[in-house]
Every structure is written in C-alpha cells, then in structure tokens.
Design brief:
205 residues; 3-stranded antiparallel beta sheet; 32% helix; transmembrane helix; membrane; elongated; 4 helices; 2 domains; transmembrane; alpha+beta
Length: 205
C-alpha cells in the first residue's frame, strides 16, 4: 500500500470523534439561529419598553393639572352727565344755593350766580366800603365782628339786630353778613380792598 492511501481524508479532520460532539456540530447552525433570534427579541423588547416609558412620561405631563389664577378687576365708571366741580359745589346738602368768588359792583344775590341788576344790589362805594343801592330798603348788610366764621343762622341774627345799608372799614378777612330782597341770607368774606373789593360769597336758600 502506497503512502497516499494512508493519508486521512479532510472529512476525518472536520468531524469530531464522539457522537455527542458530532450532534452538536450537526445542529450548531440551528443553535446559533435560536440564540440570534433570542438576542434580537430581547433587544426589540428593550426598545419597546423604552418607547412605552417615554410615552407614559409625555402622557403624564400632558394630563397634569393646570393651575388657574383668578384676577379680580375693579372698574371705576364715571357717572354720565355728572355736574362739573363748580356746579357740584353749588349744590350743597347744607342748604347752600351758590358759592364762589365775586367782585362787588351792584350785584344781586337773589340770582344764582349773582348778577348785575338795576336794583336790590350790593356794590363798592369806596376803596374800603360797600353799600346797598338807594332804590331798595329790603337788602341789609352787617359786619361780623368776630374771629369765627358765621353760620347761616348767625348771619340771619346779625342782620336782624344790626343790619344797615353800608359797611365801612373793610379789610381782608372781614366777614359781612347780608339779607337779599327775597329773604335769602348771604355771607361775604373779604379777599381784597382798594380799586376792587373782591369777596368769597356764600348764598343760602
């Protein structure tokens, strides 16, 4: 027998000697396929689990309650057709018919506001003297000789007791009480004397 017939064939080198090893060798590709499928399944499951967790997280944030802030706004509405400040001041609850600054010059205090008329007026006679025109004996005036501010009742009493047609020696700050031809009580607070006697006037109903 020659040397070539003694050489082992390649098949003898590739196949294991034992039967169990031979079976493992024969079924090796099947095991490898099964393991690969298991690894792939585990990897896909992890991805799905991750995606599910992310979805739950986003859904949780979307369903979280939203805080609601309540703001109270108070609106101030100006009354329509309201009187101007000067008109409101002349509609007093204490019975004041009219009040404001005047320049004495034959003013009739029965009008609101006082106005120039031919009679029943109080005007300036000299730089420090006011008088009632001669055509009326019903209008009376009287100086208030006190540091206090006379009320309507006090002016009424003063005119009834010492009323006349003239008041002399007027100085800034002096009060003069008066009574109109129609019986209204008024009060003058002297502001200036000289070329023009100006006063802050209050007329009651």
């Amino acid at each position: 027998m020659d040397s070539t017939s003694r050489q082992p064939t390649p098949e003898h080198h590739r196949r294991p000697a034992s039967e169990s090893a031979r079976n493992l060798w024969n079924h090796g590709p099947n095991w490898i396929s099964a393991i690969a499928a298991l690894i792939g399944a585990l990897g896909l499951g992890g991805v799905l689990t991750h995606l599910a967790g992310a979805d739950d997280s986003s859904g949780g944030s979307a369903s979280s309650p939203t805080a609601t802030a309540t703001v109270t706004v108070t609106a101030t509405v100006a009354p329509s057709g309201g009187a101007a400040p000067s008109e409101a001041a002349n509609t007093s609850a204490d019975g004041v018919r009219w009040s404001g600054e005047v320049t004495l010059g034959e003013l009739n205090f029965d009008f609101s506001p006082p106005k120039l008329t031919p009679g029943n007026t109080v005007g300036q006679l000299q730089s420090d003297m006011v008088w009632v025109d001669d055509s009326s004996s019903e209008v009376l005036i009287a100086a208030w000789l006190s540091d206090s501010v006379p009320t309507k009742e006090e002016c009424d009493t003063s005119v009834a007791e010492s009323g006349s047609t003239t008041v002399r020696d007027m100085t800034p700050g002096l009060y003069v009480c008066g009574k109109t031809a129609e019986g209204r009580i008024f009060r003058l607070k002297t502001l200036t004397t000289g070329n023009a006697i100006k006063a802050d006037a209050t007329v009651w109903n």
